[in-house]
Amino acid sequence: MRFRTIAVILQLLLLAALFMPFAVTGKTRAAKVPDPVSMGPFPVGVTTTVFVDSSRTDNFTKGPRTLVTEIWYPAADDARGKPKNKFTDFIPGGITPQLEQLLRFGLQMSSAEVDKLYVNDAVRDATVRKGRFPLVVFSHGNGGTRYQNTFWCDYLASHGYIVVSADHTGNARITIIDGKTIMYQESERKRSAEDRPLDMIFLLDRMMGWNKGGDKRFAGRIDTDRACAAGMSFGGFTSVTVADREPRFKAVIAMAGAPESNTNLRVPSLRMLGTEDATIKEEGNARIRSQHAKHTGSSFLLELKDGGHYTFTDTFKISKKPGDGIGKGKRRATGEEFEFTPMETSYKIINSYSIAFLGYYLKGEKEYLGFLEKNHWPDVMAWDAKNGE
Question: What is the pTM of this model?
Fold first, then answer.
């Protein structure tokens, strides 16, 4: 009898453990959010598409505004262990002799050598994971490319975000449309300031269409009600500008760039800069700091003390030469030599604060607030947090 009693007690304890999450309130206990400092739990997929905005005429091509677009997304588990995306996979139609020559001239490397260095975590055209994921629309820098921030796009997708990034035709380093190579046009820079916000709004519209069945792979997978405008350099300028115009963007991440002014000072914003940025210089950094100070909503300012302009890009992956954010540099104020913050540390900081910010403001994951309120790398960065909620 005693043993039967013990068995009954053990069964009751087991049942209690099984149903513990539902105790008291009857609701499931919230799962622990992923560590923002580590890659997320999902494998990553990437795919290329071409969108055509027939309502606009491209100033340079004189045809409909055409955007070669990259999309990163959480992939199904069968993507694990499959070959990863390569640099040359981003080039529609593959590397032509002309592009091979351009690579050798610009990087002093062959396409095969770039493929070895340009490490990605995504699997091309992997199956889209079941679920519904917030959207991030990313804008590249002046003369940049849609795939200039794969370190960040891969990371976000692994944490459950869909990231969409297009070449801003005429302002991208190289865009290939219908087999034609369109190089960066300095004369299009002013025009691009007008085109870029419209490009981002157009991409948001197209993602809404895809979510409604426009592309069966992504039908019901894209949460366009929770969208973030993001960008780097000229793209940082663009992300702030488009949030002024388009209320469907619920958050902003702007890296190393800002417009001269902005009017929407309530949208939650994460701004980043490199103290030693020699491209936007102190004037550009001062503009970023000023906009953070004036922001009346939630605003966060991440400043890498030994960061430069290209700290916020994939340039680390393919260039070992010293540059604005890479290797050795000289301080703008004193001329003193120093080492820029290395790639591993820079990426870890940029990625982790992005995940905590997006988790809190797009997904409502309140557990990330503690991470956002603290400077976790005080030796290499300055951090200012204003939670306006």
Answer: 0.91
Q: Label the pairing between strands 180-183 and 174-177.
A: antiparallel
Residue 27: which residues within 8 A CB-CB, separation 6 or more?
none
CA distance 93 to 100: 13
Task: Report the 10 Å Cβ neighbour count for 259.
Answer: 16
Mean pLDDT across the stretch 366-378? 97
What domains appear along the chain, each with residue ranges and CATH number? 40-85+120-386 (3.40.50.1820), 89-119 (no CATH)
Q: What is the pLDDT of residues 52-66, one digit of tens each?
A: 999 999 999 999 999
* Nearest residue to 355 (alpha-carbon basis) of 32, 37, 30: 37
Residue 234 has pLDDT above 50, yes or no: yes
**Stretch among 92-101, 112-121, 194-203 having the lowest mean pLDDT:** 92-101
pLDDT over 60 (residue 152): yes
DSSP 213-261: IISTTTTTTEEEEEEEEEEETHHHHHHHHHHHH-TTEEEEEEES---S-
Chain mean pLDDT for the chain = 91
CA 58 → CA 133, 164, 191, 198, 203, distances in Å? 31, 20, 10, 12, 16
Tokens representing 208 are: 């809404």
**Residue 2 pLDDT:** 41
Largest CA-CA distance found in the chain, in angstroms, rounded = 91
Element (H, E) at 318: helix 315-318
Q: What's 125's DSSP letter?
A: T
Interacting residues of 354 by C-beta distance below 8 A, sequence separation 6+:
152, 155, 156, 253, 270
Question: Is the model's pLDDT at 50 over the cut of 70?
Answer: yes
Q: Which H or E run contains 173?
A: none
CA dihedral over 350, 356, 360, 365, signed as positive or negative:
positive
